[in-house]
Amino acid sequence: MSLILTPNITAPDDAYAALIAAHEGLNKAQSDALNARLILILMNQVGALGTINAALETARAGLVAESTA
């Protein structure tokens, strides 16, 4: 599955502002819960497991050292 990795949000500044506003007034645990819920909602919106797996691999790339064994 090929992901869209170039800017694709029609109003990126507004989208970012909405994301920040959604976190206003939340503590760390609530903010983490919001992020988890948002991720699950967006995964459901995408629907296709291949696309979800490709996005997970792309997001994880370079974050942890992969085992060479």
From TrEMBL:
This is DUF2783 domain-containing protein. InterPro entries: DUF2783 (IPR021233). Pfam families: DUF2783.
